[in-house]
Hints:
The complex is a heterodimer. Chain A is of the alpha+beta class. In chain A, 38% of the residues lie in helices and 15% in strands. Chain B has a single domain, classed as Beta-grasp domain (Ubiquitin-like (UB roll)), CATH 3.10.20.30.
Amino acid sequence: MLLLRVDLAELKIKKENIPSEYRLFSGRALTSRIISDEVSGTCHPLGPFNKLVIANGLLAGTPVSSASRISIGAKSPLTSGIKESNGGGNTAYKMARLGIRAIILEGETKTKSNWYILYINKEGAKLIDGSYLENKGTYDKTDALHEQYGKNIGIILIGPAGEQLSITAGITNTDIEGNPSRYCGRGGLGAVMGSKRILAIVLDDAGTSPVKPVETDNFKYLLKKYTALIRSTPQTAEGFPKYGTAGMMEITNTIGALPTRNFSTGTFEGAAKINGQALYDTITERGGEGASTHACMPGCIIRCSNRYPDKDGKILVSPLEYETIAMLGSNCDIDDLDVIAKLNYICNDYGIDTIEFGCTIGVLMEKGIMAFGDTKEIVKVAEEMQKGSYLGKIIGAGSIIAGQVFGVTRVPAVKGQGMPAYDPRSVKGLGVTYSTSPMGADHTAGNTVRLNIKHHLKDNQVEISKNAQLGATLFDSLGICIMVGAAVKDKNLLAGLISSHTGLACSEDILIEIALSTLTTEKKFNNSAGITSVHDRLPEFFYTEVNPSNGVAFDIFDQDL
Amino acid sequence: MINIQLQVKVPWGKLEIDEIRSYAEGTTVEKILADLGIEVKDEGNFLVAVNGKIEYKDYIFKDGDRISILPALIGG
């Protein structure tokens, strides 16, 4: 597997071998390692010295289910620290078919007037003029690229928000049907890609051969075990396929962890209208192009995704996920799935993170810029944002800046990144993750909610968060979807799959060591960027304000961390 | 006898209940799960919340408690 280095100053592309000491590094382990090695902690995230690293996992492109996630890393313009954001879709898979482990975008173009498409096929890679796509929404960009290159491509792309260097802009990936909706959403990486003047990366794997394991028999044997575990575990065999991530709402709403009206409480009166059951019922009743179960990446058998149709059965958005439903739903006092789906579509098209958008709208609603639950106004504001309104630009700058502009003190964000859909007072382990993760407030960096522990009490939460963060980092560093974690807990099985596929020696210890070293590398980078343990804390109000659902405040302080 | 509100929302299997049920005094979470056919060794796959807070299998119910049996999931 190769590394493609794209020099934007010289407009040249070089093929490199992965350094031998990093040959077991992939996904987040590789992106964080390269950023730490090659980027200064004090660089301007949108300047010439930041780099954007895109990496797939060691098992990408193989028949291993749910192992083709794509990781993107850089110094984040939102947190000013190191960032890795991963997503699903068909791009990691196609990268692997093209023999590529990582792509690095570095330097700065000599002028800021051109836009480029990085086109990669089995012949090689080249930069093509992409100016004709400028300012188009991601859906239009995708249609144009499909017309040009056929529908059997993978596309990594940004929307107008990324082009305009909005610090909440995400990078999206096409799914199997070619929808540009699998977001590497968090941390403003879309702006970094925009600063490199690259609108889209087209991965055309036509004519490539399937990725083959080194030890076929052993690989097949272990693959059978892995698949059997997914098929026999209730969460991955029935829970996720039926309700997807939206099934989470029942849990968070019950334990007072569902952010409601800018995290003012943890239970939402309208939850039954937007939860997993409501989503499932709506999709099934409307039929048409809708689907309550759907695979975002080739070969995934968990199929936690969905395709949400409007009343006439035409697709409104795909997917509609828990985080978006909660942050744009309960957090904004909206109980209408159609409105949430429409807003999701707008965010996808414009190119910004739905979690950050929902968090920021919640902050604005608290101030009365628009009323909680005012569906007409929020859609109007979102549509104006797409046209470049000033309020839209403030929203695109995220919850912290919006809070500063409008004088709001209750802003739920850590290290600059808006809080996702779990109230930390009710899931204290995750609260510790929010506080301490190098990523900022992040629900994928070490989620503790599915553990059978007393989430509303502080006991052991620090230790539990540490383990969760290690586990999450391990999966992120293999390009394996964290949904798999409910079924496959045997890290030796993962190590065996890696060994038999790559021919490299691997073990549970080695995997844990890679995860640990990734976290250490990230913390070191953050320190060099000026982010220290002083920043390992939640916003003040979470310590003093009790969550009315359960009478609990966050009580894990600096000394405990 | 004590009355508790039992809510079961587990997507796998045919378990969907939302009603008030009566149990003898001293009933634990473990007993209720057994009645529903949920083996306690399946502990990793579901969570039990009483009045909105997670409780373990040895919790003894009080009259008026609301028990929710939920799948152990992660969201995204």
